[in-house]
Amino acid sequence: MRRFSLNITLINDTYLSMQNRNRNRNSNRNAIISRKIINLSLIAVMVLVLPATCFAGTLSFETNRLEETCNLLPANLKSQIENNSEKKDLYLSIGDAKEYPQVIVSYNSMGQISRLGFDLFAEESDRGIYRDVYLFIENGLLNFALLPDNLSIYQDAQKKKISLLIDKKELQVQSKKKGIPFSSFNRNNQFSIQLDRDFVTCSWVFPAGRSFSMKFPADIGLIKGMNKDELESDFVRKLKEFEPERVSAAKLKYNASHVLTPGLYMQEGTKFETDNFRSDIFLEQSGAKLFTPVFSPEYPVESFSNLFICNLKPETRMKVTYVLYGARRETNHFLMNKLLSYLSANHETYFGWQNNSDFPEKIKATVIFYNPRHKYYHLMIAETEKNVLFSDNKKGIEALMYLYVPMGDSFLRNEYPD
Q1: How far is residue 148's CA from residue 176's CA, in Å, rounded to a whole number?
Q2: Residue 296, SS3?
């Protein structure tokens, strides 16, 4: 296992630089918030003049994009949503049932609208690894259907970086008839998702040989309709709400592909960006041709790595401080299984040991949780003391965590070259 020293200042500088780039996406909002003088009389006039279009007091949305879609709905449908006080799933029709699929409105645990789009995918798909992509498609298609003409649809697609093909041809902007075959969409369509480097392509095949496809960047902010601040808040909230299943006691089979020292073996994993970050599993022999992940004071660093790579000790306590947009920090306490189970479905885990010679009693590491579909990672700087790691001490592991670092940032490769 390779050792390195982590430049915390550079991480913070890099992260703040990334945040600054994201501020451009919210310049209008920040300009409003930063005003020191608010003309209260003007606000009062706006409330009186625009009662039908101002929903801030009655409806709450998980993202601005969902609110924008809601504002395109006819007044009678907005009223139905507004009167849905129980916040249960609501089904609406935007026109003739033969022309458009049914619209679904769903809510998160905070009572915010979290889903607003055509109801196109079965529940098992909604809960799958492409859930955010499905929600993006449903919302995007509804948004297109609510726009008046092909030109408006084309402009909205361009804004969201979506490429549209109808029967393998680009949308005909000048045509008076809407080009997207909305009446053909349903849950029984032949549908596929393809990941091609940095893009997602969603394709439908309809009866009579017709087809439709949407291609867009795999960027998580675009797909979820959230800026950096909203993504981070969404992650923190959903992790708090997440209830992990109990870790199975089933014995996994490990392959000791390398002998490191007498009594210590390794199952070779893969690297992330450089060889400083790897997913290797460190093993000890527990019987004839049987190997188990090592967890022993004799191998503290390897044991620390196994905690993250294997979820070896799910009851380990963690104190995680998130470093958030705008230099905010928030600290949460939970068991290790909660974090690792939450991330396991969509992320790959890589461990990198930091050289901590000034404090030999401590173990420190950088852990990468990488999402290969949306090309971002969460970066955790975790540390503990050796005597705590191998005891029942309640202190557990303390960590800083940076969320949604884009792969476009070359920090790790520049700082830790092979």
Answers
A1: 10
A2: coil
| Residue 101 DSSP one-character state | P
Residue with tokens 């913070």: 12
Looking at the structure, tell me whether residues 319 and 385 fall in a common domain.
yes
> In this structure, which amino acid lies at residue 294?
V
Question: How many Å apart are CA 169 and CA 155, to the nearest integer?
Answer: 17
**Chain centroid, CA 202 distance in Å:** 19
Q: From CA 77, how far away is CA 136, in angstroms rounded?
A: 21
The per-type count for the chain, helices as H runs and strands as E runs, is: 14, 21
Whole-angstrom distance, CA of residue 416 vs CA of residue 379: 14
Q: How far apart are alpha carbons 225 and 180 in whole angstroms?
A: 22
Say yes or no: 150 and 295 in one domain.
no
- In this structure, what token pair is assigned to residue 215? 């291609």
Q: Which of 191, 225, 259 is the last residue of a domain?
A: 225
Summarize pLDDT for 22-45 with one digit per residue, the tens.
555 444 444 444 444 344 333 333
Domain span at 298: 229-415
Q: Is the pLDDT of residue 366 over 60?
A: yes
